[in-house]
Amino acid sequence: MTSARLSGAEASDGFALLLKGENARALETAEAGLVDNADDPEWHRLKIEALMAAGQYDKAREAVKPALEAEPRSLVLLLTARDALRMGGRPQDAADFPDRIEQLMNTRNWAYRDAASVVAYGRAMLLKGTDPKLVLDRVFSAAQKMEPAARESYLARGAIALEKGDGALAAKAFRDGLKVASDDPDMHFGLARAFSTSDREEMAAALEKTLELNPRHVPALLLKVDHLIDREDYSAASTILDKAAEANPHNPSMWALRAVVAHLRNDNPAETAARAAALKSWPGNPEPEHIIGRKLSQKYRFAEGAAAQRRALKADPNYLPAKSQLASDLLRLGDEEEGWKTAAGVNDADAYNVAVHNMMTLHDLMESKFTTLENGDFTVRMDKTEAAIYGPRALELLGEARKKLSAKYGVDVRRPTIVEIFTDQKDFGVRTFGMPENPGYLGVCFGRVVTANSPVTNSHPVNWEAVLWHEFCHTVTLQATRNKMPRWLSEGISVYEERQADPSWGEHMSPRYRAMILGEDLTPVSQLSGAFLSPKSNDHLMFAYFESSLVVEFIISRHGLDAVKAVLNDLGEGTTINDSLARRVAPIEKLDENFKAFAKQQAEAFAPRADWTKPEPALLLPGGEEKLKEWAAKVPTNYWMLMRDAGELMEEKKWLEASEVLKRLVALHPNDGGSDGALAMLSRVARELGDAAGEQAHLVRLTEIDSAVPEANARLITIATADKDWTTVAAQARRWLAVNPLVPGPWRALAQASEETSDWKSAAAAWRTLLSLDPPDPSGIHFNLARLLHRTGDKSARRHVLMALEDNPRHREALRLLLEMQGEALPPDAKPAQSP
Asked: How many domains does the chain have?
């Protein structure tokens, strides 16, 4: 490019080139412009930013001196110079730049009436520790009002929101910015970052637009790498990293992510080299270690992640992103004292950090409302009221899981496992993800620490006992592998072990899953971890869990449990998953092929006599009734048409005809569970027909294959109580309690069944629990508890009988029991106290 006279205004052409990723042309433009405009700060700034974008950090640092000699009072140039000096390894030379910017604004504020200068001043104030909200409200907002079409204020608002973990506020800032700068790649990239943890479709669309506008946008390329690492597609991640290196071969973040990929591939020499390259231009830069640690923690390598954050803090003890991440890592490792102390320190230093503020608020709530149950192997924290109701059962169940799974996988689980159960999904979200959003999780295991939702949070029936079993299985396998396992294997083993513990637990083959396997939704094993990240629907997410468990079932059926245990051991020793599978099972390409055949075989064997063809949508529209009947007549075993016919007959109360259709359905598909499946429908029809034995048989079968059908449990309790079948009453009450222990029905049934079978201890425990549920008849429950305790010689019986009389002074049986306790004579016609 020639150096023919270029005015200062034309520096904007160079910045436009930078936005498009044409760094070399931008640098040529800057050098040509400086020939005739050596005193113009914009040309100097363009040169420094072009050198920085190309990774020429030494040259960018050298360009600072002539730039500031030409114009030492430009706030924007000072901030750019600060970045160049730091990246060039001379941060000490820029230490006073924020103070200089503040002083210039205070003494020459009349000179800084443009948005870019005001934003630069605000950024300097943030560096000096000014309250971010104050900067947002008073500085960045003022800059936006000053020049509504200037990009700087929108980018600054979004950046600060992202830094503090407020994705919603960041998204709003960038969307506002796109209204005035629709083709700004940085604005689109900011939007991608805002959605990176909440909406992957939105993120992907914004990233695509960013790279369309600037194919060499290094931060956007690195965000793609970040998510490819999540998908465990390390080969594709390396390819994108190479592309980023073409634009900037010395970018520290790029090298940090190379170190992550090398670590996950167990390539120690490559990891060491990448980490050194990340710190080459600025050895004291805390950001690369923070990026490495954050990404490793996202891969559940919390110990390695925490170590990286400590290295970052050694370089810069005041680097808050590392402190915040370290606090999270420590809490997930179970190092609670240091973790909460570190989080409190971050909160004190930066009250606007949303994630940490949420954590400290939750900490205070847990301190006041939670109680702790311990038995040496487990520390369970939960709401005080709920702890009295099902806390002992939670401890008992976890103990059973520990004993069985530890022995099965040969893992001696070290240190007590911490389990925290939350009655508010927002609190669960904060403890688990740092933010109150919960993308549908029932529980999460970090290794030593498990978080779970209370049964009270579930909008539909969920077996909380199965959830805890599933999560503790993660504890076992994560310890076996030192947290070095792909997500599909971790989830697959846990779902598989649910089914092994109780056939009614876990995910099973279903009509929906059958169609997905035989259709286009089966994911190769080599790509299975990615199926959890951006599923098309909730069905696809649940299918990822089921498919993963089916892979584990396939491996065990062909190679035995020892093969899975050997893979876990290999992973713990640092072998990659594909290398271990090749050694213990089959090369990954062969495993993909063999599993696909196995899955299709399982799908085709599912209710094979039923026809699973769905009618064409046009047949279901008004006017298509006759053609639908003609079609149905040709497929008399069609599941969907039989279900449709049964439903219509039930609506018309044609119970006998409905019974015949449903019996055909159950013959075709014997395991059609759920509250709206054929078994549930058939039990309802049997009841309407007065077929008590049939109703009971169908309900029993339903509860054997589905662990979360409380209506079936309740009905079976009613039937069994009438038949005085107390064993069934107790069994169904416990199955109901495994879904919802916070309702009185199953506890009352369990108390009665326990009394009838002389299980006084269980009966007393059930009556006590009922008292925790704020019952409408506390007097009667206190009396029943007193009667049982008196029978076993427990002196606390007197307190309960007095409480029964306090609540109901006319309770004659309670008065009789009190007289018995006092040894006083009863009236001649009196009888011993009986249960009302």
From this structure: 2
